[in-house]
Amino acid sequence: MTVSETTADGEIDVEPDLLSGLESYVTLSGAPEEHFDVEAPYRGVVIGELPACDEADIEVAFDRAEQGQKAWEDRTVEERAEVFKRYHDLVIDNAEELLDIVQLESGKARKHAYEEVLDVAMTARHYAYRAEGYLETEQREGALPGLTETEVNHHPVGIVGMISPWNYPLSLAVSDAIPALLAGNSVVLKPAEQTSYTALKAVELLQEAGLPRDVFQVVTGFGPTLGEPLVANSDYVCFTGSSATGRIVASQAGEHLTKCSMELGGKNPGIVCSDADIDRAVEGLIRGCFTNAGQLCISLERLYVHEDVHGQFVEAFVDAIEDLQLGTGYEYDVDVGSLISEEQLEKVTEHVEDAKANGATVLTGGTGRPDIGPYFYEPTVLTDVDESMALCANETFGPVVSIYEWSEEDDVIERANDSDYGLNASIWTEDLDYGRELAKQIETGTVNVNEGYAAAWASLDAPMGGMKNSGIGRRHGDEGIMKYTESQTVAVQKRMGMTAPPGVPYWLYAKLMNKTLKFQRRIPGMR
Ligand code: ADP
Fold first, then answer.
1. pLDDT at residue 166 above 80?
2. Nearest atom, ligand 1, residue 245 CA
3. Would you call 263 a catalytic residue per the annotation?
């Protein structure tokens, strides 16, 4: 197969064997009955077809995952970590090929695809070196000092089911799987149907790094068919996608009392303060709003700019946006790539047209660019947006941002928080202490001061996820691995039992205990 992508300045060929052999990493119970097409958004052409797995395939995937899990769990954390240290290097060594596949399937610009390579490598490194510390048995304070020895073990849950979206096909297929695997679990992944080749390539590299084949199963196909059996068989479910689908998956997990974490949508606010460095804010907010053509759950879709700098900011922001290079190239010089699909283009177009019809002003963009590729849409800035417009409160998931003016701090905090979502926020100020204080009042799981989203996301030691309708649970840091474990408290009672000592009447024991408790509360170190 040869895939060629047309750019304004010529033809770029993608390696003919880029996708060959990847289908063999799909778990199947037999010859697949149906296939589905995978499209390259740059040109809207079909680049391959993959099996539309069914319930029987899911069963085989879980059987294999279960067979592999025990031996994997029996390895030491250090042994498991070796796999991910090798994976870190393999991802970097194979970056060009990974980037080609990500771009081919998602239509994003190469620099945005590269963020995924960075993320996967950094996540592999973080957990490979930190997992042992996170997972080790902990000594805890016992019930009776000197008489009770208490420790907590962290066992793997078993099999983690994952459902991942198309917008970050590499990152979101493997970065959550890495801590799950390091904790001793198997994983069954259902990647988004639009971008499954990327997930299969990531799994190929995991196997090359030494991950036993059984412990990472991939089933390709459609969510409504595969979601339910996947959730029913999982010991834990990790979902990333829209809030609407998240509700379905969470309710299925609820039926089975299966624990789950979800990272869902956002309508993320950015706040530009009167003392912001405008040049830095313009550069950072362009990335914050238009990375991956705005198809990023943590990207910013609402900007609140202080009245003192509003005019200056808007002029510089619009000028800089008009200089952005849109294109289909496989080089780093393109600033904004394509949307993923016709469906996504329709959604973005509908939001902007509805806003225009209801009185919004388009400062730049506001139109598709079929001259570049079928699903391209111009980076778009709107003002005069109000609640009558669908995009005011709802996630667009495209390259569209609305700008509002503010003057009073209380008011901007209220407006930033006036959302059902609570994923990410961005604050621009030269007064970093003020930025930190303002951040505490914003109801989002991450707040970036003088960055759009990347600083908090890439702080892998710290939790990342959503408040309100933006999610359940967190990824990254200790929470990002401990969620895949069951804590088990083991308490060893020495010498005497948890009752009155032999020969001491219970009334006396109760009296002594009352005195002991009062004494303990007053003594630091015994509370
Ligand atoms: P989008 O609408 O942008 O594709 P989704 O949240 O629907 O976003 O998709 C995220 C992931 O959820 C994809 O892998 C998709 O196949 C899967 N999915 C879609 N519908 C369901 C469902 N009913 N149950 C489980 N997974 C689903």
1. yes
2. 6
3. yes
Per-residue pLDDT reduced to its tens digit, 104-118: 999 999 999 999 999
The label of the residue with tokens 């090798």 reads 86
State which ligand 1 atom lies nearest to the alpha carbon of 165: 10
Record the pTM.
Answer: 0.96
Question: In angstroms, what is the span from residue 82 Cα to ligand 1's centroid?
Answer: 33
CA distance 328 to 357: 31
Minimum CA distance residue for ligand 1 atom 3 = 242
| Concatenated DSSP letters of 175-241 | TTHHHHHHTT-EEEEE--GGGHHHHHHHHHHHHHTT--GGGEEE--S-HHHHHHHHHHH-SEEEEES
Over residues 175-217, the pLDDT tens digits come to 999 999 999 999 999 999 999 999 999 999 999 999 999 999 9
CA neighbor of 159 nearest in space, from 30, 263, 56, 61: 61
Token couple for 130: 């930190």
Closest C-alpha residue for ligand 1 atom 14: 192
- Beta-carbon count within 10 A of 469 CB: 20
Ligand 1 site residues (CB inside 6 A) read 163-165, 190, 192-193, 222-224, 227, 241-242, 245, 248-249
Q: Which of 222, 227, 158 is nearest to 187 (CA)?
A: 158
Q: Which residue has the tokens 């991939």?
A: 218
- CA–CA distance, 490 with 503 (Å, rounded to integer): 29
Known catalytic membership, residue 289? no
Tokens of 456: 């908090």
Closest residue by Cα to residue 281 from 126, 111, 451: 451
